[in-house]
Design brief:
Helix content: 25-40%
Distance between the termini: 30 Å
Number of helices: 9
Shape: globular
Strand order of the largest sheet: 2-9-6-7
Largest sheet: 4 strands, antiparallel
Number of strands: 10
Structural class: alpha+beta
């Protein structure tokens, strides 16, 4: 699906954008999701098999990289069980090229969360769908806000506290579903092969930001 075709579906112009804002709310991520930082596993913890350790380098732009995998074995006593990942978990990089986002699929499991990677899980009864949340997290708008909240000079760093303070515009559920439906073709490839993910991510970002531009312009 071409970006311009989707822009025509959404409609252009400030007036139409304002009309679509009726019923929208602005929420902090912390009101919608649970955010968890990873555990400081070290190289001495690596093993030949076990849980696929999700490090910063595994979280790329719209997909999980399986290049150079590292594995660890979680303690049998269950003390680190809370760092085990589940299908559908959203990962965000907190160091270096901050704001990269990936989605855990069944093929990545079993997996564990390493330090400086955040796990985002939607809260029960949250007014935002996972699909709409992903589109926001994949947007340049999210990355720009996260980078502005960052710390450090040689290497950018953000914390989970910075992450939960990011604001997201939340439309009513039917509008979320409508936006996601219009972006299904772009959205479908985000967690697949690298080439498809990068191409579809560019399309999704452009379309999503076009749709939300009036909202963020007003927030100014």
């Amino acid at each position: 699906m071409k970006v311009m075709e989707n822009m025509e579906i959404f409609g252009g112009g400030q007036h139409q954008g304002d009309a679509r804002k009726e019923g929208w709310q602005t929420k902090k991520l912390g009101d919608l999701v649970e955010v968890q930082n990873g555990y400081a596993f070290s190289s001495k913890d690596y093993s030949e098999a076990g849980h696929f350790l999700m490090r910063i380098g595994n979280v790329q732009n719209g997909y999980i990289s399986t290049t150079d995998p590292k594995f660890i074995k979680l303690p049998a006593d269950g003390s680190l069980r809370r760092f085990a990942l589940s299908e559908g978990d959203i990962l965000v990089s907190l160091t270096g090229n901050v704001g990269r986002v990936g989605l855990i699929q069944q093929e990545h499991l079993p997996a564990a969360l390493n330090q400086r990677v955040a796990r985002i899980s939607i809260c029960k009864d949250s007014p935002v769908t996972q699909e709409f949340l992903l589109l926001f997290l994949f947007s340049d708008l999210f990355r720009e806000e996260l980078i502005c909240a960052g710390h450090g000079t040689a290497q950018q760093n953000v914390s989970t506290k910075d992450l939960i303070e990011i604001e997201i515009p939340v439309p009513p559920l039917p509008e979320q579903q409508r936006i996601v439906a219009l972006l299904d073709e772009a959205f479908a490839g985000l967690a697949t092969a690298k080439a498809n993910a990068e191409r579809n991510l560019q399309n999704a970002r452009a379309i999503f930001e076009f749709h939300l531009h009036p909202v963020f312009s007003e927030r100014g």
